[in-house]
Design goal:
heterodimer; A: alpha/beta; four-stranded parallel sheet; B: about 475 residues; mainly beta; 16-stranded antiparallel barrel; 18 strands; about 15% helix
Chain lengths: ~300, ~475
């Protein structure tokens, strides 16, 4: 009855009763994953781009308008979107996407989070209580999340449940082959020490065996200062890092500075879909990430 | 326990396949089930062993060591617990705010040409002072409602600044809120002092709503967000209307009502905007203020009637690539028109022998307006700078029969403000502000304010 009324309202307001399931993805990687699984059964809105820091987004009017019209919010969770998503969801007037409803999906719930803080203390910076939320750069996580997402899509759109399951299975077999390829290509990266701007690459490092030797931010969410950077530079003598990594949305200044002083390459990694021209989809994201890392090694 | 649904499923499947299962079939099924049981037990044991191994590894060498397994072993991974700011169920935060102010010593600050409610132009305490300390509690109540309370603590006083519940489960774009809340009219009205971009509110907010610079309401708010690709929101409120420009009254029904519409969208990836139009109707019974009579003596005025307020607001934000972290710019401007309609009774409560020794009641009819515009530029993650200009117009002030008893000044209050602030993180900020305040006729007040704002506890929300 409620759905019928909504549909009638939509028609009355001059909008085509969309056949595709509307999905609101907070960050590009989940938008891309939903597209891989749902194909033309879904219409995806992505709230942020690869050039935006997902911690610092505001609850813009356009996001509220999109959340009002969606049937499924796909978020990272683990406090990544704590500054804006709860407000967008609450003020959307959309009962189906509230926390705890089927229309609210948090990817972080389906993977094992790393770096869960022992103590919650802001003197340690903007710590995430649930653990490090940048889970998308371990491709194995995407299999678990994709599996749960296919199930959820099927629950929300039962007539297409089989299509979502099939979409996931096709993705999973292709993805597993790709993982094998990436792991083979990335073998030279095992044990390579790196500096990072923010703890954005923890899961990538765990997967490929990179060794993080320091972060340019003195504390999470606190901008790199000259004192801290000098300290990192001094450590280059005893424990030299081979490159310094940052995401597409982080300022290049600090990593360029330390790269110049230490004579190591500063490597920008796409971090998510759209972060570089080559990272047009999830496959491109990992192809390009590994290509850039290998290039940094030479 | 793990096997039970399995057995049932297997039996079900079997019963579907073969209606009359022979003994041989049953034996085969049993042996299959036993086989599955064994295989699952083995896999669980293997998993437990691997978990123990992993834990030992982590203890042995804390340095992150990559797992060597080539491809994922897909086991149903235990879901991480849902945690967030609500890990403690109730989100609690505390706002610390205080300042040092240097300005002229003016005993009763008012805005010349406007209702002399003693509201003044915001900050009036000189030297070091502590603003009220704000204590915020918020949480989902159940799947249907969310609640929030804000207590403002000051010496010997705890004020319930806000206490409301909000609907979560109505749907269809409807949002319902009840209790004590900041009205959704205008743009700045909903914002708390610690969210302001300057140390004090625009003059028009003081002229409209007094010292507090926000219209708070005990009542009911209804909002509807249209299912359109462009943000389009309608709001309506009814409430007690006890706060200025209304007065408290002992009656059934509502003392104030408000209606507003907001529209907003993005322009490309770097720009976003919101604009709105709001209307507020309040009524007053004996709203009291001190006036000056034609001989310069103090006289009391009591207003009975209705006040209609219109506010138009516009906000525009820009950030390179839509990433506000490093650089962003925010422009905001609001304009109001307010009309008082009713009568004013002039009295001589203090017995100073003014023109109203015998109380005189006459028409009271005003139409006043004002605006402000401000821009704030964040040029590094830590530093921001901003400019603001305020101007009001005392407009029409018709005193009717009291025109011969009371004097009212025609005046255009003005103020120009500049500020620069520094934030160590999202949670701490210190601000330096200079203002040239000409809100009182004949006085040019050069005001300096140094202010700090610190927030503890749950992560605040980034409201547009």
């Amino acid at each position: 009855m409620i759905r019928l009324m909504t549909m009638l309202l939509l028609v009355a307001m001059g909008f085509p009763a969309a056949a595709a399931l509307p999905v609101f993805a907070t960050v590009p990687e989940w938008g891309a994953l939903v597209r891989e699984i749902g194909g033309d059964k879904v219409s995806v809105f992505v709230a942020t781009t690869a050039l935006q820091d997902p911690h610092r987004i505001e609850a813009r009017p356009s996001l509220l308008a999109q959340a009002r019209r969606t049937q499924l919010v796909v978020a990272t969770g683990a406090d990544l979107e704590a500054g804006w998503l709860p407000l967008v969801v609450r003020d959307s007037g959309n009962a189906g996407i509230q926390r705890g409803q089927p229309g609210y999906f948090e990817a972080a719930r389906y993977v094992t989070l790393l770096d869960v803080p022992v103590a919650l203390d802001r003197t340690q910076g903007d710590v995430h209580a649930a653990g490090n939320p940048h889970i998308q750069l371990d491709p194995r996580n995407l299999l678990k999340i994709g599996d749960a997402l296919a199930t959820r899509l099927g629950e929300l759109d039962p007539p297409n449940a089989a299509a979502y399951r099939a979409g996931y299975q096709a993705f999973a077999s292709k993805w597993q082959a790709a993982i094998a390829r990436w792991e083979k290509d990335a073998a030279p990266l095992r044990g390579v020490p790196v500096l990072v701007h923010h703890a954005s690459f923890l899961y990538l490092a765990r997967w490929l065996g990179l060794k993080e030797t320091g972060t340019l931010e003195p504390k999470p969410g606190v901008e790199p200062g000259s004192g801290h950077l000098s300290g990192l530079l001094a450590r280059q003598q005893s424990a030299p890092a081979r490159m310094v990594l940052r995401t597409a949305y982080q300022s290049d200044g600090p990593s360029m500075w330390i790269a110049g002083k230490a004579g190591i390459p500063a490597v920008m990694l796409p971090f998510t879909v759209g972060g570089s021209p080559e990272a047009g989809d999830l496959y491109g994201l990992f192809d390009d990430t590994i290509r850039r890392l290998l290039k940094g090694l030479n | 326990m793990l096997h039970k649904p399995f057995v049932v499923a297997a039996l079900l499947a079997a019963s579907c396949g073969a209606q009359a299962a022979s003994d041989a079939d049953l034996a085969a099924i049993r042996s299959q089930i036993d086989e599955m049981k064994r295989s699952y037990e083995q896999r669980i044991a293997a998993l437990e062993q691997r978990l123990a191994q992993a834990e030992a590894d982590v203890k042995a060498k804390p340095a992150p060591q990559a797992e060597a397994r080539p491809v994922v072993a897909e086991t149903s991974a235990p879901a991480a617990p849902a945690t967030s700011a609500s890990a403690f169920n109730t989100e609690i935060s505390l706002i610390l705010q205080g300042q040092y102010a240097q300005m002229k010593d003016v005993p009763d600050r008012t805005i010349t040409g406007f209702w002399p409610g003693g509201q003044g132009s915001g900050v009036s305490t000189r030297g070091f002072s502590l603003d009220h300390t704000e204590l915020v509690f918020a949480a989902g109540i159940d799947p249907y409602w969310r609640g929030q309370a804000i207590l403002a603590v000051q010496d010997n006083e705890v004020e319930v600044e806000e206490a409301w519940f909000q609907s979560l489960a109505i749907g269809h774009g409807v949002g319902l809120r009840g209790g004590r809340y900041r009205s959704g009219i205008g743009y700045l009205n909903e914002q708390h002092t610690h969210q302001w971009d300057f140390a004090n509110a625009p003059l028009m907010y003081n002229a409209l709503f007094g010292q507090e610079a926000s219209f708070r309401e005990d009542g009911l708010q209804f909002k509807w967000l249209a299912p359109t690709p462009v943000f389009l929101e309608f709001g309506a409120e009814v409430g007690r209307g006890a706060n200025f420009p209304g007065t408290d009254s002992n009656k059934n029904g509502a003392g104030a009502w408000a209606a507003y519409v907001h529209v907003g969208d993005d322009l490309g990836v770097a720009n976003s905007w919101r604009t709105g139009l709001s209307y507020l109707k309040t009524s007053s019974g004996d709203r009291e203020a001190d006036f000056v009579d034609i001989n310069g003596l103090q006289a009391q005025g009591l207003f009975n009637g209705d006040t209609a307020t219109w506010i138009a607001d516009f906000v525009w934000k820009w950030a390179p690539n839509g990433n506000p972290k490093y650089q962003n710019f925010k422009f905001q401007s609001e304009y109001f028109v307010r009309q008082d309609k009713g009568d004013l009774t002039c009295t001589d409560n203090a017995g100073v022998g003014n023109a109203c020794a015998t109380p005189v009641t006459g028409d009271y009819d005003t139409r006043q307006s004002g605006w402000y515009a401000q821009g704030v530029f964040q040029f590094t993650p830590e530093w921001r700078a901003g400019l603001r200009y305020d101007q009001l117009d005392s407009g029409r002030q018709n005193l009717g029969a009291n025109a011969v008893n009371l004097t009212l000044e025609d005046y255009r209050p003005k103020r120009a403000t500049a500020m620069v602030d520094y934030s160590w993180s999202e949670f701490s900020r210190v601000r330096l502000q200079y203002a040239q305040d000409k809100s009182m006729a004949g006085i040019t007040d050069n005001q300096w304010i140094v202010q700090y704002i610190m927030s503890l506890g749950a992560h605040g929300v980034h409201k547009f």
